[in-house]
Amino acid sequence: MSAPHVVVIGAGSTGSATAHDLALRGLRVTVVERGEVASGTSGRNHCLLHSGGRYCVTDQDSARECIAEARILDRIMPDILERNGGLFVALNESDLAFKDRFMEGCEACGISAREIPIQTALKMEPFLNPAALAAVEVPDGVFEPFHFCLAFLATAKANGAVVRTYTEVMELVTEGRTVTGVGVRDHRSGVSSTIGADMVVNAAGPWAGKIAAMAALAVPITPTPGVMVTMDSRLNNMVLNRLNRPSDGDIIVPQRATSIIGTTSWVVEDPDLIPIPVEHVAQMLASGRELVPAVGQVRVRATVAVARPLVTRAQADSRDVSRTFECFDHSADGLEGLVTISGGKTTSSRAMAQRAADVVCAKLAITAPCTTQTTPLASYRSFYQ
Among 3.40.50.300, 3.30.470.20, 3.40.630.30, 3.30.9.10, what is the CATH number of 53-63+76-141+222-311? Predict the structure, then answer.
């Protein structure tokens, strides 16, 4: 008797990690992605491997998830991460007044944090604003999003998973009140077909609501874009954060030969239609210059906006919505065979996958435990072999 078959919708960080987890547990897995791997939110994010410091005061559940998962990722994919550390920097009295709360938050969440002298910080980051008043070092890092997803998928493929890119889900196939597969269209060949499944995992990020709506279901996911500006030089080696509550333009992340300033936050209806407000770009550049004055002397390489899939159940400022994640077993809505996993951060994608895979396996009477915390990932290069 063959193992149950699970279709995973989405080849971003969550879908890729979910495919890896399920394949590792012995299930047959097919991943369908309407574009290239990481072509949605995952491929256009800030590239920040979170220490949790950003949320240690305002969203401690997310902060604890981030630091725990960053440590796991450091074990299973060390070749993909740049563990360059981060600095939270006070530039005014408001930032300075936040420092004690920040240090207390880091301690409460298990995040190592130490205040360092400003002169030491300036030696570590020569382009940092010399008027800075305080600096706290945390274990932030950086990843390359495409390679991040490919590593999970390469390992999933080694365990039998099939990855179908440029294959868009057009419908959820149902029999009665049970999802039995997906109707897809291959955008390369133009051919439409049906892929049967014992379970379907909706890991479509900010598009998860669109997938759920195919079965007349609603999920509390709000597409929340942010504008990021990429500078054409690497101006900082460590991740630089403003020492205060998360706000617009308060972080600069180094990525290869660039530095990425981010980010704003607002709500849209359609994650495929995100205009980039010119005033948001101007704000990113102005805020970036406050942390690193040399931003004003460097050419802008690119601007981008991409939607975060925030889980929301009430109207609230998008800055106040938790960055944690949630798994929805739609049997609670009267529909079997469909699970949605959304929210979270790329840093927490392995944990999100574990949550979704646990639900799927319980419903399919699969008793294999999760071993993704200790299983090293294959090289991202082997995805194409």
Answer: 3.30.9.10
